Amino acid sequence: MDPFSSITDRLSQWPLSQKILLALVGLAVLGTLLGYYLLMPRWKESKALQQDINREKIKLAQIIRTRAQIIQFKQELAEIDNRYRQIVIMLPEAKEIPHLLKNISNMGLQQGLEFLLFKPEKENPKEFVAEIPITLHLKGSYHQTGIFFDHIRRLPRIVNIKRLELGGFEEKNAKISIRCQLVTFRVLPLPPPSSSSKPMAGKK
Fold it and tell me: What phi, psi does 115 have (nearest 5°)?
């Protein structure tokens, strides 16, 4: 006897409700199988695509932040460069130092000051600039020295006044002796780039 025919005969004897239930179960199983084999790959592909989109969104956000940081850095660099140029204008070059010292001396002489000592000292190099101290001993009235120091303060170049000492006052000519140190600066040249490799000597 054919087993398939036996199963068919038994099914034909089931009530209609059981046949409908069996058909629904069969459809559910078929739908599950179709969904697993047909829709599951699409779902996995869609999930992978969504993950790729999320990663690209993160990369885009990082690029936007980096671009904003670069723009801000360029702005800060431009401001620093501008301030540096302004500072350089206020610092004499080496070739301008003698002219600056002569100018300071002439300002004092024009006010009638008597220079007892005007001695540029040894430079004191710093990181980017070199300090140029000048030992100064002079004699004059309060008014003359006040105008002289005010003129120094108004110079376009930076000249600081340090170690100001007042000496004895001469009543007969109303003059006072003054000792101080003037300090100006000059920009040091940038060091040349160091070469890590030396040229090899040619073979004889």
Answer: -90, 115
Please name the residues in contact with 43: beta carbons below 8 A apart, sequence gap of 6 or more: none
pTM: 0.49
pLDDT tens sequence across 86-105 = 666 666 666 667 888 888 88
Neighbours of 186 (CB within 10 A): 21
**Token output for 94:** 């080496």
Render pLDDT for 3-18 as a digit per residue (tens, 0 to 9): 555 656 665 666 667 6
Q: Bridge-partner residues for 166, per DSSP?
A: 178
Q: Which of 100, 96, 92 is nearest to 187 (CA)?
A: 92
Q: How far apart are CA 111 and CA 92, in angstroms?
A: 24
**Interaxial angle between packed helices 97-110 and 142-153, expressed in degrees from 0 to 180 and rounded to the nearest 10:** 150
Judged by DSSP in three states, 100 sits in: helix
Q: Which pair of structure tokens corresponds to residue 153?
A: 């303060």
Contact 118, 98 (CB under 8 A): no
